[in-house]
Amino acid sequence: MIDGGPRPGSLVLPHGAARKVPAAPDKPEVKVWPELDLPAPLTLKFLRGQEVLFTSEGRWLHPLFELEDQLARTGQAPTGTLLVDRVTGRAAACLMARMGLNRLRTGVLSRLAIPILEAHDIACLAGTIVDRIPCATEDELAGVDDLAVAYGLLKARRDRTLTP
Question: Which CATH number fits domain 20-162: 3.40.140.30, 2.102.10.10, 3.40.50.10330, 3.40.50.300?
Fold first, then answer.
């Protein structure tokens, strides 16, 4: 077990301190984790045990794209790791699932991200659940379940933001 992280097969939602909430049959269990160990200005941290493998201060989905690049460059497997993210919407959940991450701790989780996390067995601890992240990307991916389609849309959007 990763210190401070959820067990595989658990989905953690808020409304209390570290309590279990029954999940639907054959869905991950739900837990609450009110604290987030992500001091400003960090927006994302990637750990194996207590060892910090990657951090970012980036905005939007850029930290996840940077993490994806690092994993590809170093050949690191996401097995036994924990991703700590400040805000996790549906787009972030799609990128995490595509990378094969399976443990997440987030300050704010969008309800639109939950089906993606569940479908890809990503255990999650969340401090707060919101109906949606107020972001055009969240709206664009609201009905997208296919990770390849989501990745194509997100990569194109990212490339547009990086083009001068």
Answer: 3.40.140.30
